Task: inverse folding
């Protein structure tokens, strides 16, 4: 469930992800194209980095559908950043629609969002929590599977403190091991339902976004990446090539407008964006 | 825009309109079948009569989408009445999503709801208000065209106090004259956009529901009526014939389940339900 | 934190607890008299039993302050029951204001609410959860200490299935053992902050309400009980004696109006109301 | 009713008005000192100018009480501007708590807020509206007296287009004439209830803030002005003298911390802040 979008590049307005392009994230909140169910109306959230004021990202969340939230429409054109995240939610059955359950989730200088679900989460939850460090356990404030996935990622991140000067490598290890941990648990508990783990994880300078589905299931939830500059003309959005220093990275559940310039991320791969905005797509 | 449903008959639970049948009003909030746009997620409202406690109907409204409102899901199975109304809203562009703008609207012992729009409402609003009595003017608390339509209906109702002992006839006159007033204004102001006026008006014992569109436009918004008892079996709902004393009247934008037993109301007609639950469909 | 009120007796309207008396629960939401901090504006909830329609109580909750919630004002006069609960919340620092965190909490046919706090909850939470049965663990949907207290009470209730035909005795054991469990944990973990456990627990026919504070701390949060009939005259409310068959039991954090007829519950006692509405106040 | 604060000066964070000082606007939302009723919990709003991105100010409003709104707490420390407005609302009886009724109100590049009430607004409303231009009439989206006051101010502003190059003088005329218009109407309609018109009006560079009450009533709602720099130390806030180029203007219903440095605005005067941040306090 859910749709998300993320941006790293020269500062742009939040509205360029959220309202302006033809398949903006608000458009995906009521008419997503690459899901059987087009509706993602159970709240939304946006996050952005303002490094000159605070290391931790700013975040704004609401349980209103994104399409009718006056505050989002007001904030989007005056919020500008080099690193932006946006998420529209379709709540999994049984998980509450509350502000605290909306993505992105923030932990210190990190922001995280999830599109998908942990197979059999209700059955796995207790064991999953038992395996967490106290810090990761205590940081869980809501009831989503997503926030529990973040807790596992956080613990794996902490486990690799030796890689402090290679954050992208550290993050990849954390993400890979978190997915493996979750899968192992699912198998041990004989859960048949697959996990869908499109996970986006950033420190505001680098980003990792996975596209994962449990083995034997097809396809993973959709995920795309584009490099260049976003041009919005007569309502449609296109990502076009541009000089390297102006070039940005867009990662989104669906192309934000024309598909030209967007590449599908292969299943069970992770997109790694470094601080210089170089992009690598590697197998998980 | 919008979808609504209304019930007059032996007491039933609100859930029988709102959650149980296969095309319940909650289903219509995210997947309406007879509108180009299937989504009615900009709030909802329900009203019901509890005559032993109060003449005025009870009302519960929220700006949450109906499908994810925990309170609605909790109230529906324990709310029981002989007269129920329910409405899911798709806000007209420019009209605020606020609790006060959700239907049904209550005036004394009357409840009212609207599916449609007044053509060129923004241009007509000021003149429309000038023509109102002080009482009807002052009663308008929100910003919808619908509440303005109700104000015109209320004034026309008051104008026919001589018919106090024939309320159904009085209501029909009020509705007919209100529609005529609104149409005359639209024509005078040279508004080309048509009005869609599916209006439901009840005192808890009788009901009038119109299906109207301005001349030259096709079709009016959908409207159906069914008589009998609602049976919900394996998720689908059917209205089936039953003994007269148990027979109820259902009026809804769309059949609540199987189409069997539901009749389309002809365009520019009004369904009139009397206190004995006899039903007449007459031209406007 | 918080204030609550509960009623068992001949059916009355919810408004008789919530809006009508001079110190109604809505009044206590902005001007509580027996707390240092008069404000309980972080959401509210009401629950009531409709046994002819459902065994589980109906519940309506909102994160709006009780004093400005139009739905509460609309529902209160048309909601009538022999067993009513109402709660206004002052969120403990760090605990989210969300609908799911509002009281009363419902588990099957039981309703539960809490006024107070578990000392050092943040530090105790993980161990507290480890001690729960899977059923009680899985039923926790929010993040409050209160819902964790309910989980302990539920487990202790289940442990005394042998007392199935003596529910009031069973409930007293459950409440007493739950408080003892929580206190033992607090002492083991060397938490100095005391627990305040004014707990209300009902099945719609019987009720148990405790007034507890950890040893060495004074005083417990306020709690009162009154027997008779509520009379609201010129804005003030009084509970007056009446014939036994019409006599009701009111239990509330503060008298709902005049103090006459209300008795303070002694500290570390529990008020037990049986199905015949006889009342006993016994030491914990 | 209500409390507000406004800032013009070197860019500061919104949190410096809203959360940091000891009598911040959030503090005033639950514990205002200079009103008989300390509670302003019926929603809030903030506005700020980001001239490099848009002429119109950004605005964020919510019906949650300011003290428990997670979004406000998240936005305040990362929102920085040279011109900030913040308002906490205590709804007048009968006026809906809705997002659209929260202040500040934005019209083009102007922001406006009101602390007070129009005496007898319900009786005056219709005549007041009749006197408005179509543009001012159509811009009213909510139901508050405040938005109607803004409509009168807007019309008077438009009437003085000849003063386009002297905006502060133009604004003063507009404000003075608007107050006179409202007072004349009140007198004509024989309304005895006084009007309280503490009005704040800004284009992001200049500001006018009135302190007015109808003749014969005492006192007007409180209003203060301070010049200098805000220093927050150990929880308290003080405005201290500083070099002219760093000096800011604070105008607020109550001093944001220590009273030192704050001057009460005399009754029936207006504070005029020019683009160079020079301040004049003149009689209305």
Result:
């Amino acid at each position: 469930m859910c749709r998300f979008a993320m941006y790293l590049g020269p500062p742009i307005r939040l509205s360029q992800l959220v309202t302006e392009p033809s398949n903006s994230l608000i458009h995906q909140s009521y008419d997503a194209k690459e899901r059987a169910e087009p509706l993602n109306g159970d709240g939304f959230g946006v996050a952005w980095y303002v490094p000159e004021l605070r290391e931790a990202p700013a975040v704004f969340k609401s349980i209103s559908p994104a399409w009718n939230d006056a505050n989002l429409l007001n904030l989007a054109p005056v919020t500008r950043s080099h690193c932006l995240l946006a998420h529209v939610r379709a709540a999994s059955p049984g998980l509450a629609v509350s502000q605290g359950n909306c993505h992105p989730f923030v932990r210190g200088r990190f922001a995280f969002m999830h599109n998908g679900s942990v197979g059999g989460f209700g059955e796995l939850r207790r064991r999953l929590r038992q395996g967490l460090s106290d810090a990761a356990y205590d940081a869980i404030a809501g009831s989503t599977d997503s926030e529990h996935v973040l807790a596992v990622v956080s613990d794996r991140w902490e486990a690799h403190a030796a890689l402090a000067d290679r954050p992208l490598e550290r993050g990849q290890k954390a993400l890979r091991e978190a997915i493996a941990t979750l899968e192992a648990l699912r198998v041990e508990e004989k859960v048949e339902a697959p996990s869908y783990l499109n996970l986006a994880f950033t420190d505001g300078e680098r980003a990792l976004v996975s596209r994962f589905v449990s083995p034997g299931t097809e396809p993973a939830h959709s995920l795309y990446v584009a490099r260049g500059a976003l041009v919005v003309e007569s309502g449609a959005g296109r990502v076009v090539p541009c000089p390297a220093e102006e070039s940005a990275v867009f990662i989104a559940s669906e192309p934000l407008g024309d598909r030209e310039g967007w590449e599908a991320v292969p299943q069970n791969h992770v997109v790694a964006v470094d601080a210089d905005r170089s992009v690598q797509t590697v197998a998980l």
